[in-house]
Design goal:
Layout: E1 11-13, E2 19-23, E3 29-34, E4 40-46, E5 52-59, E6 62-71, E7 74-87, E8 93-102, E9 105-106, E10 118-123, E11 139-140, E12 145-147, E13 153-155
Antiparallel strand pairs: 1-2, 2-3, 3-4, 4-5, 5-6, 6-7, 7-8, 8-9, 8-10, 11-12, 12-13
């Protein structure tokens, strides 16, 4: 596939058949970068003026999203959001999102407490409905696990972007 109606400038693929670039013409260009194993590691959208405006970094189950503007030639980080993809081997999934920067202001966190901006979005596939904790305090970043209210553990598994 080399063209889509929603991407008028076309799609560019690398020799390994991975998406390399999408040209949105007046809307800018999006570039895609892959690691040595072929998994997407970075996606950058550059606006028409040539300043980096939106970026996603993929590090296994961890994802960082950034929006940057160029004011008077000095790039300013306007928004940064970190997302952890958590799932069980059975396929239950949870996304833990934390906004770390908004309007160029960094959120501070008290030691041992999570940010108030953390949001969890969970989907559970079970015969009996159960609740997965929606607070980030149930997650241990050092062991990549979270716990549900019934005591079972969830682990962070690599996800495909």
């Amino acid at each position: 596939m080399t063209a889509m109606p929603s991407i008028p400038g076309g799609l560019t693929w690398d020799p390994q058949d991975r998406l390399q670039k999408t040209d949105h013409q007046g809307g800018g260009i999006t570039y895609y970068v892959y690691d040595s194993s072929g998994i997407r590691a970075r996606k950058v959208h550059v606006n028409q003026a040539g300043t980096m405006s939106k970026e996603r970094l993929y590090l296994g189950p961890w994802e960082t999203y950034r929006e940057t503007t160029d004011l008077l030639g000095t790039p300013t980080l306007d928004l940064e959001r970190e997302t952890l993809h958590v799932q069980t081997e059975a396929g239950d999934a949870c996304l833990l999102e934390t906004k770390t920067v908004e309007n160029a202001a960094t959120y501070s966190r008290a030691p041992g407490r999570s940010s108030t901006e953390t949001v969890a979005s969970c989907g559970v596939r079970r015969h009996a409905v159960r609740s997965i904790t929606s607070r980030a305090e149930g997650f241990s970043a050092s062991s990549s696990t979270a716990s549900s209210r019934d005591g079972s553990e969830l682990s962070a598994l690599p996800s495909s972007p």
